Structure formats: structure tokens, C-alpha cells
Amino acid sequence: MWELRFFCVRTAQRRLTIFFESRYNTHCRAQEWQLLHWKTENRKEEHDMEKPDIMQPLDWAKAACETMMRKFAPEDLPPKGHFHYHQGVFLSGMMETWKLCGDRRYFDYARAWIDSVFDEEGRMKDVSFGDLDDIQPGILLFPIRDTTGDPYYDRCIEHVVQEVRAIPRTPEGTWWHKTSRVNQMWLDGLYMGGPFMSEYAKRTGDRAMMADVIREALMMEKNTKDPATGLLRHAWDRDRVQPWADPKTGKSPECWGRAMGWVPIALLNDLDELDEDLEGRDEVIRMGCDLLRSLLKFQSPDGRWYQVVDKGDEAGNWLENSCSSLYAAGLAKAVRKGYLPRACAESAWRGFKGVVRSLTWDGDDLQIGNVCIGTGVGDYDFYIARPVSINDLHAVGSFLLMCTEMHRMMEADDESR
Q1: Residues designated catalytic
Q2: Cα–Cα distances in angstroms (integers) from residue 181 to residues 56, 73, 149, 193, 328, in the given order
Q3: pTM for the whole thing?
Q4: In the prediction, which pLDDT does 413 show?
Q5: What pLDDT score was predicted for residue 2?
């Protein structure tokens, strides 16, 4: 059995000590050792949020949602008014939180943003048409349609599908990442388009679209996989003309953390919807598990992963919270679905605890830092020099996806007892 404690001191006006304790007994199930205990002392402000003595993953998710709802009205989420994955990632995590805790305010907040970016005819008001990044938020429309029963959202869904059908393709049939990125595939494109397409295809019986999703995933692996590490490079240029592209392979030079993080999340969400008899479905499972197993080799003693994942020992590299959250989420879901063995749950909890240990509070607001801002493709020096942010939408969305998947894994453990 082991015990870990740490504390952080807040400002002089408001001295707050937070203790995290975590006990692990090798003979117990994972959920019996993951709870992070913490207490508050020397409170001086009567309006302090009442924080529970034990915060479980769903408590952390709700704290993050409340923080962001205080910061932004839904229609003001950046980039304001644009139908874009920044908002979609965050609100996807908020929707998952709503599904688990039942707080209708989270659903209403996400719906209010959707209503602000579609016009009366169900068309996106501001969108980079044909870019994968501007398809991802469409995933929010399905639970909104199901919950409200309003056929208006069917029109919204169909307009997003029109955008899907307009995405340019390589000669092999894979999607360009953006209309301005000719013949390029980027890892995060799997998350930006795949889950929306998979769910739409399931609901409509469009097996050709399902086959597209499978082909995109497997071609992404073929074009980006690093045989030495089992990891995936950030991007691939079919034409070998980009300054970052290897002239022989077209691969970019580095394995960037968050880009790889979207891959298991995308594949696992796709698999929830893809018909089980589809050719290539088992290969998608294999691809996701191979990547997650490869990532385990690069998990730091802290529990998190580095910005450039396979170069943790190199100068300037740093532990990054959004990729760490996505890897923990992927591991938790793969374990819960039976794709990975139970032993991998320990690594998911290590990732979760590593992220949570790095967080701070500003009054009642949870601060999720050490997160890389949105990033293009480059070399090692490019990635490690990228600015970090606190509570941007990448940060909170990734964190919410992790917390909700950890909660689901706990629930599955309880049910299996």
C-alpha cells in the first residue's frame, strides 16, 4: 500500500491547502484506489464553493463545466459565432457530463450554442465549408434532436452532411484535412469527422459512409505510423511538397501529443456505431489498441505524457495535459469495452491522477493549465516552443472526456462485482 500527499498554497489573501491522498492495494479493484482526497483549510470568504471531502471524476467534470459556464455565455464561446471544433470538443465533454449526472443546465448550455450558430433554415451561419475541423460540432446535434424531438435539428444535421460530402479527397479516396491543405492527412481529422459520420451512417443505414470512416482510419495509420515506436506522426503530405514532409514517405517528423490523443477517442466512438459485420472493423480495433499499447511505453513517472511523446528526455520537452487526458480517456474506454485487458486500467488512473495533481483553483474556478494551444505541423523545436494556455476549450474538453470515461469505467467495475 502506498500513500501520496501534496499541497499547494494559494494567495496570501486566501490561504488554501489541498491534500490529495491516494491509496492503492494491489488486491483491490481499480476504483478502490483512485479517489483523490482533499480538504480545505483557513477559508476566509463566505462565498467559497462547498467542495466535497472526496472528489471523484464526475465531481471534477462538474467543477470544470461550472467554471466555463461562469466564464462564457454559450453564444460567446470562441471563436465566437463560428461552427468549429474548439467549441465542439468542449461541448462534447459537457454533453457527456450531462448524460452521467443529469444536470439539464449542461444540455441547455450546449443547445444554446448550437442555436446561436445555425440559422432558421438549419444552415451554419459561419463555417469553413469542407474543412474537417468544422464538421466535428455536428456530433452535438444527435442528442439534442433525440432529447427535444424537434425536427429543426434534422435540417441542421443534413446541412452538416452536405459539408461532409463536399470534403476534397486524395486519389486514394481519403479526405483532405482542410480545403487549403491539398492532399494532406492530419491525425486529428479522424476525430473531427469520423464520429459524426459514423453516427449519421448508423442512424440512416449508410454503410458506404461507414466504409469511408474505416478506410480513412486505416489509411491514416498506413501513412503516419512510425515503425520504430508504434506511434503516429502528426501529418502526411501525399505530394511531399510541405517543408515538414519527409521526401520519401511524406510523413511529418514528430509524434505530437494531442494529435495522437484524438485518434483513440475517434476510433472508439466510431466503433460504438459501426456495424459489426463491416469489413475492416476488426482492424480499427487493432489499430486503436496498438496505439494505446505503444503509448504506455512513454508514460512518465508523473503519470502524464510529454508534448512530443517519444522524446521526454530531450531538452525543452514538457508534460502536456490535453494529450494526457485523451490518452487516459482512451485507455479507460478501451478497458471498459473489453478491447484492452484490465491491467491497462492502472495506467489510465495514473494519467488521470497526474493531470489532477497539476490543477489549481482560482476561487471557485478550476484551472486546467499546461495545455498546448492549437497547433500546425512542424519540427521538435516548433512543438516545444508552442505557448500554453489555461482553460482554453482544448483543455477543458479533453479533461471532461477523461473524467467521464473514468467515471464510466468505475461504474462498469461496480456492476461487475
Answers
A1: 188
A2: 42, 33, 38, 16, 30
A3: 0.88
A4: 85
A5: 36
